Amino acid sequence: MRKLLFALPFISGYACADIQVSGILDIAYEVAESGGETTERVTGAGLSANRVQFRLQERLTEDLSFLGVYEAMYRPHSDDDIGQREAFAQLISQKYGTISIGRQDTPSASAYGYADPLFGNEYSLVNNIGVFYAPWREDRSLMYISPRIEGFQFRGMATQGERDGSRDGRVYSLSLDYWSDSPWYFSIAFDRKYQRNLWDSDTMEQSTDIYLTSVYAMGNTEFTAILHRYSGYYAYAPWVDFDSSGNDLQLGIRHDFGNRHNLAVSLIHKDDDNNRELSDATGINLGYIYNYSESIDLYGVYGYVHHSTDSEVRYPLSWNLDSPLPDENPQGVQLGFRLKF
């Protein structure tokens, strides 16, 4: 692992046989309260996931091109935590659209990921409270992306799921995005997931998620909003499952001061219909980024999640910390740097 990290600066921007290598190295000092204890450590991926990307692009005809992407995740403080982030192949036609196959984000994730003020940082309220256990990056998927027509673009995805002939693990995701020359961006997305009940393998459960997303740009400032409706059965095998429904609303702002200083604020409120396995919750995520150079950013991030009642299933501040206790409201601070190569 250390040899890989040592080699990264030397392969930055390197291309061989049209294979481009790039990535992100993100290291942070963190103090966080979660799982009944205070954690103080040097960690990775505070602002962005640590990754190395290999990208191959080739033009086949005047209209048709091929794109292959493989991304590996890594954590600088660990010698064994390396995993696949994305791996997909695309046939791209400017006239007819794009066919994409592999491990990739759902159409819904592309929309709410753009509206997340800090684009999915480790303390992201969108990922950790809004999406939670809903589908977002899926294996063995097939997706179609239409050309953009009058500002509208359609995305549709279906996954194979488990290879047992059932619907277990299958995900269907659809989105309709609207881009225009105006300051507005809009999206509506629908996700459906099927999975077996953790305690009764003969029972096939399902969940439904609907996202309404909007971004408004005004000069160097962007205002974001995500309204999310969830219902059904959600599980993270083999530890957690619950059946519930509710809504959450995320409001955010990101501002570029134009002199290397950037500020982002994200607020979310979750209103669970049942308020049994889950609790109503409110969260805040604050971020400051200083663009030291084109490739280096310095940052500070604060996150806090407040639950209205005690509950067995808690929303995490970060998936890399111990799960909060049933009566705990986690919070944390990260100070770090991000190197883009």
UniProtKB/TrEMBL annotation:
Transmembrane segments: none annotated. Keywords: Cell outer membrane, Ion transport, Membrane, Porin, Signal, Transmembrane, Transmembrane beta strand, Transport. GO terms for cellular component: cell outer membrane; pore complex. It is found in: Cell outer membrane. Its main location: membrane. Residues 6-308 form the Porin domain. GO terms for biological process: monoatomic ion transport. Pfam families: Porin_4 (PF13609). It is a multi-pass membrane protein. The keyword Ion transport applies. GO terms for molecular function: porin activity. Gene3D superfamilies: Porin. Homotrimer. This is Porin domain-containing protein. It comes from Bisbaumannia pacifica.
